[in-house]
Task: inverse folding
């Protein structure tokens, strides 16, 4: 019987989903299943030694590792990106590599607006103010800490108009925002979106949301020069890939008021260093790469991973 080994399963399933879907069909078991929540690099070969299928998220699978896994037929990636696998070596050895795309578009788009609304409506500082009894001690029935603005009428810029970028555009339109976007292929997805150049995107966005894949061309799209061309009132949102931003440049821009704020769900190194320049800034909200983790998105990811495994075994 084939053996399936999940090497780093905790992020996908911390305990609220059923792993058995990977090794069962119609109630019948077709493979042995072993699940490890986390696997340090020095244990990857040992744990995957006799596996027909390994299921990974962020584990790096190098040519050296593949040389020592003679029974391996499939690397099932519980993510969209495949850059953590030596694809050329896998192909050379006849090992299939299957990822999952499109499982989290709705969840990520929702998180984009959670960050936008937290920044614009200043939800957290007002909640803190109430908890500190500022409202209880106020002479007025209502107060606000600083002026805030409606999204309606503002310009939402989208860098990368794939599935997630499209969902973000749809939500922005529902808020009454004007949508501009840059995409390598100038396709507005049949939505009322104005396609613009990267320079125009930076200059005209009140809110700029990043949704491009990480490539040599997109790396550090946001850096000192691009930040200087943005509005001083602009908000920057990144739920795509951390290295789209030169983080030290963004930290300086936020400190100097070159832009008004940032909402980030991804960083260049995850987890970040304790002295990361963006952590702790008042005008920078950071969440720990959670945009993809809605219960529905994770369940769909697990289901499609199971389908990938059954298609091979």
Result:
């Amino acid at each position: 019987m084939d053996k399936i080994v999940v090497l780093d399963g905790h992020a996908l399933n911390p305990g609220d989903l059923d792993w058995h879907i990977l090794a069962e069909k119609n109630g019948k078991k077709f493979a042995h299943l072993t699940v490890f929540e986390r696997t340090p690099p020095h244990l990857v070969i040992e744990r995957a030694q006799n596996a027909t299928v390994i299921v990974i998220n962020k584990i790096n699978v190098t040519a050296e590792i593949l040389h020592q896994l003679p029974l391996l037929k499939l690397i099932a990636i519980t993510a969209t990106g495949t850059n953590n696998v030596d694809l050329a070596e896998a192909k050379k050895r006849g090992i299939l590599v299957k990822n999952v795309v499109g499982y989290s578009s709705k969840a990520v788009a929702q998180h984009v607006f959670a960050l936008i609304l937290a920044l614009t409506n200043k939800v957290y500082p007002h909640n803190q103010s109430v908890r500190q009894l500022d409202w209880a001690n106020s002479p007025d029935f209502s107060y606000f800490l600083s002026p805030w603005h409606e999204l309606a009428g503002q310009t939402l810029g989208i860098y990368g108009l794939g599935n997630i970028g499209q969902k973000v555009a749809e939500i922005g339109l529902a808020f009454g925002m004007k949508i501009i976007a840059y995409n390598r292929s100038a396709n507005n997805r049949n939505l009322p979106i104005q396609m613009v150049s990267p320079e125009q995107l930076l200059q005209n966005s009140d809110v700029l949301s990043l949704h491009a894949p990480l490539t040599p061309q997109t790396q550090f799209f946001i850096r000192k020069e691009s930040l200087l061309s943005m509005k001083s009132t602009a908000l920057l949102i990144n739920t795509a890939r951390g290295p789209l931003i030169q983080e030290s440049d963004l930290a300086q821009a936020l400190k100097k008021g070159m832009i008004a704020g940032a909402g980030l769900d991804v960083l260049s190194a995850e987890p970040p260093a304790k002295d990361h320049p963006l952590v702790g800034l008042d005008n920078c909200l950071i969440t720990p790469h959670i945009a993809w983790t809605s219960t529905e998105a994770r369940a769909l990811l697990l289901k499609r991973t199971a389908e990938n495994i059954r298609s091979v075994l």
Remarks:
- DSSP finds ten helices and 14 strands in the chain.
